[in-house]
Structure formats: C-alpha cells, structure tokens
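Running co-folding for magnesium ion.
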Amino acid sequence: MYKLVGTISGEVGLHEFDFNVTGEVRRNEYVKVWNEADGWILGRVVSIVEAEKKTATAEIVGYKDERGFLMQPKNTFSRDVKVFKADQTFIMDTLGLKSGGINLGMLEGRDIPVHLRKEELIQKHCSILAKTGSGKSYTAGVLIEELLEKNVPLLIIDPHGEYITLKYENRSEEERKQMAKFGIAPKGYASKVVVYTPANFSINPAADKLFRIDGINLSVNELYDLFPLSDAQLGVLYQSINEIKAEKEFYTIEDIIKKVSESKSSAKWRIVHFLERIRETGILSDSPTRIEELVKVGEASIIDMKGADPKLQQLIVYRICKEVFEGRKMGKIPPFMLVIEEAHNFCPERGFEKAVSSNILRTIASEGRKFGLGLLVISQRPARVDKNVISQCNTQIILRVTNPNDIKALSRGLEFMSSEMEEEIKRIPQGVALLSSPSIEMPILVDVRVRRSEHGGRAVEVEGVAKKEPKKEELAVREKEGGKSMFAKLLFE
Ligand SMILES: Nc1ncnc2c1ncn2[C@@H]1O[C@H](COP(=O)(O)OP(=O)(O)O)[C@@H](O)[C@H]1O
Ligand SMILES: [Mg+2]
C-alpha cells in the first residue's frame, strides 16, 4: 500500500529535508512523511542529486488541520524517518484539488485529475502566459471546450483566426490515443460556435456572420475614440455634427464627411481623411451586430480578425468591450467569459504601445467580476501586458517562458513566483503548465489535457477545415459587399 522511496538523512530544516533515495522518484513528485505531532505531511521533490548515493531534496508542502487549513509542521523531522510516495487522496486533500468542474488535465507525472471551479474562472479572471509555441492557445481551447460544455457564453477575440477549428473534432491520431486517459472523446462544437468577420465574406469565407458597428448618428465622442484630433479639428467636427443634427434625425458617416468638407477651416482635411478611412473599412453599418447576439447562453462567438489592421483590431475590441460591459451592467446579456488572445496588443503595458482598448480592458479587469464578466487573457509577452490587468487574474496558467524580461515581469506581478519556479518555467515541456488558482493551496504543474476539438494553431492547416460551403444568404451578402468594400486594401497595405 505505501510505496517506500527513501529515508531522511543529511539536511533537515523546517521547510525542506533531504533523503536517501531507495525507490523510484522524479523531480516534482509528491512524497509523504509521518510526523508524531502532526500526522502525515506532504512534500514535493525539488531536486535529485546522483553521486555515490542518490539523494533528493523535498520541499515541505504541509498538512491539513481539522479546520481544513494548510499547516506547516512545528518540528523538524528526525533522521531515518521513512519517505513514501504520496497517494492520490492525500495529495488531493492536501493541495485542495477537487474532482468535477473544468477539466484542465492531470497533475504532471500522476493520474490525478486537475479540475478548476467554473465560478472561479468567470468571477476571478484567468491569464495564460508563455512564449510562442508552448501551448497557450491550445490550453485556452481546452478551457473554452469546458466552458462550452457548461453552457457558459463566450466571446473570443481571435486575431489570427485560430479558434474557428473549435467547430471540428480533433483529427490528430496521436492526441486521440490520449483521450481515454483524460476521460474525454473527440467532439466538434459546430452547433455552438459562431464566427464573425469584421471584413466580409470574400476576405473571410469561413465566417458565419458579419461583425458591424453602428454607423448611425455617430457622436463627436465616438469619433474622437476612433482617431486622435487636435483642438482645431475637434472644433470643426463639433460644428459640423451640430449642423447636421439640426437638419436631420438620422445621419451617416457620409453626411459627416460631406458637412466637414464644406467647412472653411483647413483643419478639415485630416478629419475627412480619417472619416473616409473608417468608411472604407466597411465596418460601419445601419444594421450593427447586437451584443445580445454576440453573448448567448451555450454559444461561443468568435471575432475572427485575421488580416485586419492592428489599429482597426484595437478599435473593434474597444467597441465590443465597451458595449458588453455596459450591457452586462444593465443585465441585457448573461454572465460570460471574454477571451482576449494577444492581450499585449489590446492592453499594452505603459511605456510600450498605446491602444484605444486599454482603458476599457483595465476597467473590465478590475470591475468585471462584480457584473459576472470574466476575462481570459492570453499573451506571449507577459512583460508587455498591462500589469493592472494581469494582477487582477486570480487563476494563472504559465507555460514555458524563457525571455528574462518576461520572467522578471512574472515574478514582479505574481506573488507565488519563487526563484525555484523561475527555473522551473524555463524548462517545462510543451503542454505542461504551472497553475496557480485560489482554491489550490500552492502552484502545481499540470499536464494539460488533449483537445476534444481541432486545434487551429497547428503549422499545417487540416484539409477542408477552414473551407466550407457558403450558405445562400451569405452568397447574397457577398455579392453585395464583396467587390465594393475597401477593407482588404486598407487592411493589407
Ligand atoms: N496540452 C497539449 N497536448 C498536446 N499537444 C499540445 C498541448 N499544448 C500544446 N500542444 C502542441 O503544441 C503546439 C503549439 O501550441 P499553441 O497553443 O499553438 O502555442 P502558442 O503558445 O503559440 O499559442 C500545438 O500545435 C500542439 O501540437
Ligand atoms: Mg497561440
């Protein structure tokens, strides 16, 4: 029943102990030691040295007292006390792992499931940080699948069009073989996923719907959000819009352009230029996308911004965030999870770039939880994401990070980071994550489960996945919008 792995020897401290290894142990393995005063104590192997004899150092995790608090032993262990491999129940109890909930994967090296609480993710935000290729989007996909299973509405800001493959089941033979181990089966979410394009169907044939912003009766403030204006330019815009308002109840950007062009001020040209650029994107419409459509129980809406100009992407994120935050406050839409890929582009740290979407994302990070608006932020440059946003994320998933500045930023921003962990995250393999969550007593390494659905970030696109037969009504819109829109030109120049 108890698997002996060694005997305590050498250094014995209050936080760590050394032991002679006689059985099988790996780094990061959990062990347990009996202590007269407190009972079983959980430890974690932090290093193994193979010299004449094999010795290991274990860090003391502690034990749960009657109240369920994690406690540290009061006395040091005596020499010659036996060290055993820790069993599943003891590890789960001591670390606070519960079964049921969001299935993230398994404790690294063990068949112990790691589940997160759905409420915790939504109410307390989550971040996924790591270098490129370490499995961020993959892990985000795992969380999205789990939230979809629980019918939590999702709104996904997808700069690269990677999440559209959530519709299809995982085709990787190798990954399918691992599914049983994680207790899952292949599954596509075609009936729950809706892909929006801010461009049009000829640029993005895989999209289901167009994403449009309300272009009717744009106010000076709304326009000022879209592009910077000098005082003189602002003056011209104010006057022009006031004049239009006196003339008609409803006006379009066309009307504004016309009115501004008639101005006698030379400040008008820059405004006209900006207004024309916005008009040409085709993003403004008299039938805008409604937030009630974007945020629906049991659905994931993907805003696929593949190929869109970065400034336009920020603008779209700004508009969406502002509207859903207001909408959530007023109870127009249900509680939901907002997923922001490449977060450094939308809420950059001060001193790096600027983005119109920064302030609203900061507001959502600090106030969203009150209104049931959860954030999942993903970035490969932790140092470049607004630290106010990162610090509001209570669940942190960190995969491999090697850039020294990023490691420094993580250490500064996350209280649990120790120098030992800094070393750890430099070498963790692809698909393994360091997880810190409010309900788990200490950060743990998780072997993130395989995806049920196809992962879109693969180097080689799966044949047929991105292509699909267009529906009739889409073709009609394509006809109408396809040739005319300047979106492509603006975006690809
Ligand atoms: N948990 C995992 N299980 C299996 N393969 C994974 C896992 N996480 C990542 N991978 C592999 O790593 C590749 C890169 O992951 P991806 O999420 O696209 O990286 P990035 O961090 O750049 O978003 C994926 O295409 C996938 O093959
Ligand atoms: Mg990615």
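Result summary
The longest helix spans residues 310-329.
Residues 220-284 form one domain.
Job closed.
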